[in-house]
Amino acid sequence: MKSVADFSFDWVPDNPLSAEDNQQIMHLWTERAGLKVTEANRRQQELVLITRERSGKIVGLATVYKARLEQIHNWVYFYRCFIDPDFRAPALDTQMLYKTKMKLEAKSQADTESKCVGVAIIIQNEMIKHLWNQAVWPGTEMIFIGCTAEGNHIRIGYFKNAVI
Question: pTM score, two decimals?
Answer without folding.
Answer: 0.93
